[in-house]
Amino acid sequence: MASEEGPRHAAITADDRGALLAMTTWFLGCTLVLCVATRLIVRFTTNHLPGIDDVLVVAAAVLAIGSTVAISLAVESGLGRRYFLLKTENIVSIQKEMYAATILYILTVGVSKISITAFLGRLSGTATHKTIIIILGIVILCWTIAITFGVAFACALPHPWETFTGKCISTMPFWIGSTTVDVLTDIIMIVLPIQMVWNLQMELGRKATVVFIFALRLVLIVVSILRVVYLNRFVGNDPTFDSLPYGIVTQCHSALSVIVACTPGMKPFLDHAQSGMLSASLGKHGQGTTFGQDSFNMQAFSKNSAQNSNGSRRRTKTGVALGSQSDTNSMAIEQADSSIGSVYVQDSYGRIIKQRLADIASASSPRPSRASSRSPPRPPPPPDELRPDLSIFTAHVRRKVIGL
């Protein structure tokens, strides 16, 4: 009989479908591990150093694997089998293991979301974006803590894991409220990066790639809603058998949360975003550096600045205007004054001076062919503050002239 004790085999029958949950869970777990490993390899083999977001992704992966192990133990105890075929000790084990798996699921989703906010925090280039990201991170952190405690104490003590047989809070209102906040934060995490990218001076294909990476969270929204739909069967007449779709969708949400959190750290994303979003991290430098806080490497060009350039500035893929000086090969432009058509450049003596764009254009334009026969022009004399002090030699020269 199916109720006899002994090792369970990976067979799907009319009264036992636990193997389906186990296979799905471990497939997602292996995929998750590969994605995290790929992200770490990309980080360590490129110039993009690991950050706090990478640490959080690894932590979320560990929590997801823990949830996978807990669900596997629950399947081994009888999850997916008809309730009337199980013994009392099996039902108690299933409830404990599902209790642990649910807590780990909440922590996995929360930590993976916080890793995305940490990643966006490194990319944000304006104070408004930073403020929104900080508020979003606080909301996600509070949501994670509140839902974790809600699940931990959903049923009466001293047995809070007895979701099948104990006295518990109303399940549907609790998870509907939880899912609502979850979906709203996902929507913000989709809209905010798109808004950050949309005004960048990037090729349309690069923008589409960055937008697609963050739009993958739409899959998580769909899975989160499906989880609530299947929740009604979780505490039905046959909870161990009818809750199988709910368990599969929950494990999908847990694993996909980590997988989607890994995608911004993959090399294809970095190759497309480093010319736009990743340069925003340079905004943390103060004025006086090559890319200061007021630098416009993350700002869209205005029409006035485009008209004042008169073709003398060339734009890179990120929209950075670079002024070149033929005799110094210097590209150390710090700020552009679009109202008067001038930029700050470094002269041959290392000083930062203000120069008109028209002068830069004339200096970088090709010389007439007849000028090649002439000798190169002499450089201008250095200013007085850069001339060497020769006063110590004056007295000696005078003595030698008068014969002393």
Automatic annotation (TrEMBL):
<feature type="transmembrane region" description="Helical">
    <location>
        <begin position="54"/>
        <end position="75"/>
    </location>
</feature>
<keyword id="KW-1133">Transmembrane helix</keyword>
<feature type="domain" description="Rhodopsin">
    <location>
        <begin position="39"/>
        <end position="271"/>
    </location>
</feature>
<feature type="transmembrane region" description="Helical">
    <location>
        <begin position="174"/>
        <end position="198"/>
    </location>
</feature>
<keyword id="KW-0472">Membrane</keyword>
<feature type="transmembrane region" description="Helical">
    <location>
        <begin position="132"/>
        <end position="154"/>
    </location>
</feature>
<feature type="compositionally biased region" description="Low complexity">
    <location>
        <begin position="361"/>
        <end position="375"/>
    </location>
</feature>
<feature type="transmembrane region" description="Helical">
    <location>
        <begin position="98"/>
        <end position="120"/>
    </location>
</feature>
<feature type="region of interest" description="Disordered">
    <location>
        <begin position="303"/>
        <end position="326"/>
    </location>
</feature>
<feature type="transmembrane region" description="Helical">
    <location>
        <begin position="210"/>
        <end position="230"/>
    </location>
</feature>
<feature type="transmembrane region" description="Helical">
    <location>
        <begin position="20"/>
        <end position="42"/>
    </location>
</feature>
<feature type="region of interest" description="Disordered">
    <location>
        <begin position="359"/>
        <end position="390"/>
    </location>
</feature>
<keyword id="KW-0812">Transmembrane</keyword>
<protein>
    <recommendedName>
        <fullName>Rhodopsin domain-containing protein</fullName>
    </recommendedName>
</protein>
<dbReference type="Pfam" id="PF20684">
    <property type="entry name" value="Fung_rhodopsin"/>
</dbReference>
<dbReference type="InterPro" id="IPR049326">
    <property type="entry name" value="Rhodopsin_dom_fungi"/>
</dbReference>
